[in-house]
Write a structure and sequence with these properties.
Blueprint: H1 29-37, H2 50-63, E1 68-72, H3 75-86, E2 91-95, H4 100-103, H5 108-111, E3 116-119, E4 122-123, E5 126-127, H6 129-135, E6 146-153, H7 164-176, E7 180-185, H8 188-195, H9 199-203, E8 208-211, E9 222-226, H10 235-241, H11 250-260, H12 264-285, E10 298-302, H13 305-313, E11 319-320, E12 327-331, H14 338-352
Parallel strand pairs: 2-3, 2-6, 6-7, 7-8
Antiparallel strand pairs: 1-9, 4-5, 8-9, 10-12, 11-12
The protein binds pyridoxal-5'-phosphate.
């Protein structure tokens, strides 16, 4: 068997693209270059390195002098660190029923952070100010978990996007009810591109943000961005407690700088969003129903179970998406090429025939 450092090692075929998740894509070459550039010699560990300091300066320049930023390993960790920093032990978090924190984190918010999630009503996967009011606890009742935060995913798990105004309306209501506002920005770049808005405009109204990079071309590097330090408590310690403090933080910070100091975040998200529109169009042209709006890099299509099963058996990778009847989710990534989309749709259509 070929060794990992031997030139003939090919454990996967790099010409094959999948649609299961944008996480199936590799890291962008500019991210890999940044990792190499920061790698020589010794620097202080645990975030005292010059690259993490530079990342902190980027956060202050971009989001205001009060902003703090913490590199973390993954999106689930970003959410747990964010929410643990703004919600007390007796608190709960209002979120969409489809929110990643509610459905796809294996109960980590409950198990690891002791947080109760309160699902609120949504329209097209988005929470409204009215839904926040309806879900809010009776704050004086001792037998009820107290709603202390609202968590909003942008883009949403259904591939829809909150405009800055829509997000601010939800945030305003949450603040009126004295709740903290968390933004799960695992795909914030895709949402920003969709709205043609700056990152600072997309986060306006949030107290704390899970800032995604991995799905958009980084490699195990996300961040927690604190916009309102007065709202958070103990985050420096929770960073470690929740196992998200990297000893060699320079490697995460280098990736985040590669992604956000220039426009790589935008270029990558523009490509992924464009490809999602192309995929949705091709699926519709082939007779598949695309019941949700395609506003970011997610496409949800209705595929008969037998067709999905046959396609999976033939090696096409995508997920069933139970939030939509007969729904299957297809994600486009920063590197999804036209020909992969064409082939996917051709093969799905062939399985249906
Ligand atoms: C909206 C959203 N938030 C958070 C995450 C968590 O990211 P990770 O898988 O890196 O923990 C994901 C991952 O798919 C996601 O889609």
């Amino acid at each position: 068997m070929a060794k990992l450092n031997s030139p003939e090692l090919t454990s996967h075929d790099p010409s094959v693209y999948h649609f299961g998740s944008d996480n199936y894509a590799g890291a962008h070459p500019e991210v890999l270059d940044a990792l190499k550039r920061v790698s020589g010699g010794h620097v202080p560990a645990y975030g005292d390195d010059p690259y993490t300091q530079r990342l902190r300066a980027w956060a202050r320049d971009t989001f205001g002098q009060q902003a703090l930023i913490y590199p973390v390993f993954n999106g689930t960790g970003a959410n747990l660190l964010s929410l643990s920093s703004v919600v007390p032990r007796w608190g709960s978090v209002i979120a969409a029923p489809t929110a990643h924190i509610n459905t796809d984190e294996t109960g980590a918010p409950e198990i690891t952070a002791g947080l109760k999630i309160l699902p609120a009503q949504t329209e097209a996967g988005k929470i409204t100010p009215e839904a926040v009011r309806a879900a809010a606890s009776n704050r004086a009742f001792i037998h009820e978990s107290q709603s202390c935060a609202v968590s909003v995913s942008n883009s949403t798990e259904l591939g829809t996007v909150y405009s800055p105004e829509e997000f601010q309306a939800v945030a305003h209501t949450a603040h009126e009810l004295d709740m903290a506002v968390h933004l799960d920005g695992s795909r914030l770049a895709n949402a920003a591109v969709s709205c043609d808005a700056a990152l600072a405009d997309m986060v306006a109204g949030a107290d704390i943000v899970s800032l995604g990079a991995t799905k958009n071309g980084a490699m195990s590097a996300e961040a927690v961005l604190v916009l309102q330090p007065d709202r958070v408590s103990g985050i420096d310690y929770l960073h470690k407690v929740l196992l998200q403090l990297s000893s060699k933080a320079r490697y995460q910070s280098a990736q985040l700088l590669a992604m956000f100091e220039g426009d790589l975040w935008k270029r990558n998200a523009q490509h992924a969003n464009r490809q999602a529109v192309r995929l949705a169009q091709k699926l519709s042209d082939a007779g598949f129903t695309v019941p949700t709006q395609v506003q970011a890099n997610t496409v949800i299509a209705q595929i008969d179970p037998e067709v999905a099963q046959a396609a999976h058996a033939a090696g096409l990778l995508f997920y069933a998406w139970p939030a939509v009847p007969s729904g299957h989710r297809f994600m486009c990534a920063w590197d999804t090429p036209d020909h992969a989309i064409d082939m996917l749709v051709e093969r799905l259509a062939a399985h249906r025939a």
